[in-house]
């Protein structure tokens, strides 16, 4: 393990952290102006940072190739940076695009957010950079402003047309709660989620099937939703409710119907989940999760054999409910379980993967952690 001093030759001005996330419910709703309910993970990307005055961005990662990536801030442009360095570069570019007079810096990164696992490792990297720059350059930007800058960085510089959930989760989540977010106006409420106090655990199962949102499938789904909203004369699918769904489906071409059905029922599931949590009925959340997975599998088409197997094996072994989380095409599954069944359920999923000839999944329990912050 290196440290900032040995890479950059001086002490850092400070250290920041920004977490990854799992989404409890509300998948593929954020780019439809809908609702989401993520929690921040205890896993985070940490950055030690010191500003530079020569306009250079010098980036080092403990998970990198052992070399410093050096970039000229003034020359940053979409498409000009490859690999992990494009995420911090994108944020600096997006801040400058938004009119903030920011220059270079030395960065040392270390992350324990699994990559390619649907747990928002890239958003955590973007958000730690945004937060450090806000503090060091004394920018008058709030957490949601920084999330929007990070989303723009990912959309326009990295080239992934994601919604705002991951960046909002990494910036705005609070310890011990889930973030109920309306992605239309970014209205938010912290919803207490005392899983341990109810004898429950949230098991995360990383299937180790790498997902890659840049591969075009995500963009095609987003475009399909936008086309459906336009055909229905709505600003976004958020503006359709369960009561209006059957009539709306009749007006749409067959290939768009399942997409719309997922988005509308998923928004309703978020509202159902909120009502359950507000009523203190945490176990009632289980069937809502499992129904969400069926919708992502059957209507939205973003699950895969490994995520389907993890959900089925967890539920069969006694989980209260389970679903894939994040964009899909691999990645991770969450399962809500009684604490005393945690080990048995994790073992059952691992056994099912072995029997199917899949590589072993990585499992851990998630407790709702804090959003982006300065550590020192
Ligand atoms: C990815 C995107 C998010 C969101 C989810 C699906 O994580 O980055 O914006 O669309 O997929 O809910």
TrEMBL record:
This is Galactokinase. Residues 3-50 form the Galactokinase N-terminal domain. It comes from Kitasatospora sp. CMC57. Its main location: cytoplasm. Catalyzes the transfer of the gamma-phosphate of ATP to D-galactose to form alpha-D-galactose-1-phosphate (Gal-1-P). One of its GO terms (cellular component) is cytosol. SUPFAM superfamilies: GHMP Kinase, C-terminal domain, Ribosomal protein S5 domain 2-like. The record marks 21 as: Transition state stabilizer. Pathway: Carbohydrate metabolism; galactose metabolism. It holds the Pfam family GalKase_gal_bdg.
């Amino acid at each position: 393990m290196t440290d900032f001093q040995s890479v950059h030759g001086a002490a850092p001005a400070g250290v920041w952290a920004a977490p990854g996330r799992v989404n409890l419910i509300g998948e593929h709703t954020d780019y439809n102006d809908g609702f989401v309910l993520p929690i921040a993970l205890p896993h985070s990307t940490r950055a030690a940072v010191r500003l530079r005055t020569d306009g250079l961005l010098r980036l080092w990662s403990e998970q990198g190739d052992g070399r410093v990536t050096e970039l000229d801030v003034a020359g940053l442009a979409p498409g000009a940076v490859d690999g992990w360095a494009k995420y911090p570069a994108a944020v600096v570019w997006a801040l400058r695009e938004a009119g903030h007079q920011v220059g270079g810096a030395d960065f040392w990164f270390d992350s324990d957010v699994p990559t390619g696992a649907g747990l928002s490792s890239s958003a955590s990297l973007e958000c730690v950079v945004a937060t450090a720059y806000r503090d060091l350059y004394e920018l008058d930007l709030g957490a949601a402003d920084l999330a929007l800058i990070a989303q723009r960085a990912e959309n326009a510089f990295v080239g992934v047309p994601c919604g705002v959930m991951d960046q909002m989760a990494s910036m705005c989540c609070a310890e011990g709660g889930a973030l109920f977010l309306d992605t239309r106006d970014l209205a938010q409420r912290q919803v207490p989620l005392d899983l341990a106090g109810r004898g429950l655990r949230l098991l995360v199962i990383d299937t180790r099937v790498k997902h890659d949102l840049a591969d075009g499938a995500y963009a095609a789904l987003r475009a399909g939703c936008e086309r459906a909203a336009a055909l229905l004369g709505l600003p976004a699918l958020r503006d359709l409710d369960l009561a209006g769904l059957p009539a709306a489906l009749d007006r749409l071409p067959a290939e768009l119907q399942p997409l719309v059905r997922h988005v509308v029922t998923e928004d309703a599931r978020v509202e159902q989940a909120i009502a359950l949590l507000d009523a203190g009925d945490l176990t009632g959340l289980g069937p809502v999760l499992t129904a969400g997975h069926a919708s992502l599998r059957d209507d939205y088409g973003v699950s895969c054999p490994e995520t389907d197997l993890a959900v089925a094996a967890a539920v069969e072994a006694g989980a209260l409910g389970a679903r894939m989380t994040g964009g899909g095409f691999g990645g991770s599954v969450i399962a809500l379980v009684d604490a005393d069944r945690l080990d048995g359920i994790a073992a059952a999923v691992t056994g099912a993967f072995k029997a199917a000839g899949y590589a072993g999944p990585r499992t851990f329990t998630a407790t709702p952690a804090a959003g982006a912050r300065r550590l020192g």
